[in-house]
Amino acid sequence: MDPSRQKHFSVVDYVIFAVLLAASAGIGLYYALSGGRQRTTQEFLLADRSMRCLPVSLSLIASFQSAVAIIGVPAEIYTHGTQYWFMGCAYVLGLLIPAHVFIPVLYRLRLSSAYQYLELRFSKAVRVCGTLTFIFQMVVYMGVCVYTPAFALNAVTGFELWGTVLVTGLVCTLYTTVGGLKAVIWTDVFQTAVMFAGQLAVIVVGVQRAGGVSEVWRKVLEGNRISGLDLNPDPTERHTFWTLGVGGVFLMLSLYGVNQAQVQRYLSSRTERDAVRSCYMVFPSLQLALALSCIMGLVMFAQYCGEDHADKLKSSSRDAMVIYFVMDMLQGLPGLPGLFVACLFSAALSTISSAFNSLATVTMEDLIKPQFPSMSEARATLVSKALASSYGLLCLAMAYLTHLMGDSVLQVALKIFGMVGGPILGVFCLGMFFPCANSTGAVTGLGAGLLMAFWVGIGSIVTRSSKTELLAPSCHFVLESENTTSALQTTFRNITSRPSGLRRFYSLSYMWYSGFSCFTVILTGLIISFLTGPMKEEDVTPGTIYPLGEKLLCFLPECVQKKLCCVTQPLSEEERLPPQHKDCNGLSCGHPPSSQEETEGLSSQPCCHNVEQETAV
Ligand SMILES: O=C(O)CCCC[C@@H]1SC[C@@H]2NC(=O)N[C@@H]21
Ligand code: NA
């Protein structure tokens, strides 16, 4: 962008941005100097299991609502229309299943890391593989989250790119390292509020500038940006109701069901009921966040595609265009550009801090403590802090890698979740729903899932065969860089010549990566388990099975259920207690379950002797 056009910030904008960073650092320092002063891993990694559902629910949203969504979703709506909004349909099952399947199992096992479950259910090898896969996923994702706001701002406002990345990374590393999970959760609460405020400000000013709601609605209809319900069953169609509403459920389960960052928040809740309730509370806020970013895309469309503003954009990146739009709208309103920049960095910081903290947790709990069981509490906490800061530096390096990735940041992030989060989800489903699955099957399944996911993911990047619908005729961009034009031409060619065989496989919508890789893990895992001798039910650790059979077959008469080994005889008193499993990894297993938890106790027997599963909300 030539300097004359660059949008400049007024002093008050910089002040607002600085206040955001200072407030975040301040919250971190507060929790470093208060409470237990972060002296135990129980406090540093799990906030003493004392959190209530409001902060937990806001932190659950903030963890996976980064600048990628703030910038990427409006760019998506602007370019392709409102089809992406159907992702909201995936939030229903995407949050109900975690609330009633994953949380009850994981919470009652009193874990400190989600991957401890894999050792309890399978073996240490499965746990290590799951942990390493998670680390890979979050490190790459963190890179995208750090890079996105800095790159977008630099492209439009000349904001110093790497200086911003450095400052953001350091502030985030600081408060995460000194303040632990309590600081991360409370900064998430503050940052989520800033996120919503920033997006709302842009929408209010944008609608007013675009001539009011009716004017915006007219232009958006004229530019056919309101997508209807696309029920096309073709799995290579990038965004349809099926890819978003159904494929999106697997994406949500991989994030809100089994991702360590979210599981850690469930485990930090005071009671299981609080954890379930916080999962429910995520739903309205997530819908609001989705609506705000979609509406922002529509307002941006009304503002540019109606008039000839489009030719002013000299950038081929749709993501940078969102920042251009915001700076254009908020220009001349001192403080608002600063508010939006604060919103962008709040989104980034809240996600990166969650990633740091969860990475430090799993590295400590799943990789280090099992090797050094006699490590003292003080030393373990120190190592956890060192890990949080070293992951901070690694994330800056990953930001540079994102620089090379190209593509729209939203697509990059969703592909990462699909390719890596999907297989992890598959291993947990294999463990929870199939008592016969053994650890050989789990490891092989995970490998097969990752292999298939990377095959299709990399294949789609290499052959660029993933179809991308083009702009509606009413909106012609002057795309400067010739490589974009040639990409458009090749895409036109692809659309005309329908891909077949392997090319069709590569053009699978990236929204199916989660579901596809998850099923690959389960199928492979079951086949290998049967080939290598399925696990006997009595060998399965109590409390690690979710009696899917009973739940799905509960409509059958009791006698049939008995035949299908899903009898529901009441458990004796000692069976009702959640199992005090062997390896707490030195981490005290927390306070003994409260009487309330005992009443909710998940049966400690596998499917056949199960009793009330209902987690009363
Ligand atoms: O915002 C990001 O950092 C990643 C993109 C969104 C990730 C998924 S999409 C479904 C769910 N809704 C969100 O706001 N985030 C997650
Ligand atoms: Na965030």
Automatic annotation (TrEMBL):
Keyword GTP-binding part of the UniProt annotation: no
Example of a GO MF term: symporter activity
Superkingdom as given in the UniProt entry: Eukaryota
Subcellular location: Apical cell membrane
Gene3D superfamilies, per the entry: Sodium/glucose cotransporter (1.20.1730.10)
A Pfam entry, by short name: SSF
TM spans (from-to): 12-33, 53-73, 85-107, 128-149, 161-181, 193-211, 239-258, 279-304, 339-362, 382-401, 413-434, 441-462, 510-531
Membrane topology of the entry: Multi-pass membrane protein
Reactions catalysed, as given in the entry: (R)-pantothenate(out) + 2 Na(+)(out) = (R)-pantothenate(in) + 2 Na(+)(in); (R)-lipoate(out) + 2 Na(+)(out) = (R)-lipoate(in) + 2 Na(+)(in); iodide(out) + 2 Na(+)(out) = iodide(in) + 2 Na(+)(in); biotin(out) + 2 Na(+)(out) = biotin(in) + 2 Na(+)(in)
Record's keyword terms, sorted: Biotin, Cell membrane, Glycoprotein, Ion transport, Membrane, Sodium, Sodium transport, Symport, Transmembrane, Transmembrane helix, Transport
A single GO BP: pantothenate transmembrane transport
InterPro entries, alphabetized: Na/Glc_symporter_sf, Na/solute_symporter, Na/solute_symporter_CS, Sodium:Solute_Symporter_SSF
Gene Ontology CC annotations of this record: apical plasma membrane
Main function: Sodium-dependent multivitamin transporter that mediates the electrogenic transport of pantothenate, biotin, lipoate and iodide. Functions as a Na(+)-coupled substrate symporter where the stoichiometry of Na(+):substrate is 2:1, creating an electrochemical Na(+) gradient used as driving force for substrate uptake. Required for biotin and pantothenate uptake in the intestine across the brush border membrane. Plays a role in the maintenance of intestinal mucosa integrity, by providing the gut mucosa with biotin.
NCBIfam families per record: sss (TIGR00813)
Subunit structure, as described in the record: Interacts with PDZD11.
Family stated for the protein in its record: Belongs to the sodium:solute symporter (SSF) (TC 2.A.21) family.
Protein name according to UniProt: Sodium-dependent multivitamin transporter
Organism: Austrofundulus limnaeus (Annual killifish)
